[in-house]
Amino acid sequence: MKQNRKPDEIFVADGGTKWDIEQVCKEFGARFELLPGNVVETRNQSLSLVKSDIIAYIDTDEIASESWLDNLVKPIEESRADFTGGPAKHGNPRSGPERYVNELEDYVYDYLVPQSIVYLPMGNSAWKREIFEKLGGFDLSIAGGAEDYDINLKATKIGYRGLFVKDAYVYHDHSEFDSYWRLARKRYSYLRATAKTYIKNNALSYGVRSSRGGKIDHPFYLVETLLKPIALADALLRN
Questions:
Q1: Which SS3 state, helix, strand or coil, does residue 231 take?
Q2: Pairing outcome for strands 31-34 and 11-14
C-alpha cells in the first residue's frame, strides 16, 4: 500500500502460515486465498486465480522499498525484459546462522546473478504471465526452494529475457534461522532440490559454476561445501 506505484491487486496466497495473515489482508483490502501445500503447490494454485498480464512476487518475510514495484515492472512494460528480479538488504543479524544466510544471499546477488540471470531468486521478481502459461506453471516434482532455478532455466532456454534490477530491492528478514541444526537441514534440502533441477534441465554446469569463485566469510560455508556432493549424489539416486 506504500508503493509509489499502486498494484492493480494485492493477492496473498497462504500455503500454511502460522499467524493470522487473513486478518492483515482484511485490514488492508488485500485478496486472501488459503491454498495449502508446499511453495510450488501454492504458487501453481495461485496462477489460476491471478489474471494480471504481469505478476510480481514478494515473500512473507520481505518488505518492499517504496519504488520496488515500479522499478521491477517498468522494464517488462518497456519490452526490455520478460521477467525481472531485484536484490535484498538485511538488518543486523541476531545469530550466527542468520548472519550466514544474509551473507549467502549477498553472495547470490553480488556474484552469481551478475554471471547469469538463471541464479535469480523468485521471492523478489516480476513475470509476464504468458511465461507460466507456456511452461505449464511450476514443476511439482521440484521442492525445497529450487523452483526458481527451474523456471529460470526453462524460460531462458526458450528465449525469454531476464533482467536484474538493482533498484528493485526488498528488506529480507532471516531471523527464523536461529540454530545451526535448522540451518543445516534447510540448506541440505535446498542443495538437493537445486541439484535435481540442474540434472532435469541438463544444466549441471551451473551448479559447478556456482561453487567456484567468490567467498563467504563464515565457518558454516565449509559445512555447506561438504554438503554439496552428498546432496548431488542424493539427487542422482532419487532422479
A1: helix
A2: parallel
Q: Determine contact, residues 54/129, Cβ cutoff 8 Å.
A: yes
Distances (CA, A) of 109 to 2, 25, 59, 63: 25, 30, 17, 17
Supply the pTM of this predicted model.
0.91
In sequence order, which residues have a C-beta less than 8 Å from that of residue 200 and are 6 or more positions away? 139, 141, 142, 150, 239
Could you tell me which residues are beta bridge partners of residue 163?
Answer: 84
* Dist. CA 98–CA 237, nearest whole Å: 31
Residue 4: the pLDDT is 95
Bridge partners, residue 225, by sequence: none
Q: Give counts: helices (H), strands (E), the chain.
A: 10, 9
- Taken in order 71, 56, 174, 227, the sign of the CA dihedral is negative
pLDDT mean values, one per 10 residues, the chain (239 residues): 92 86 91 90 91 93 95 97 97 96 94 92 95 92 81 95 97 95 94 89 70 78 92 85
Q: Would you state the cell numbers that stand for residue 143, as one nine-digit string?
A: 521442492
- Euclidean distance between CA atoms 62 and 133, whole angstroms: 26
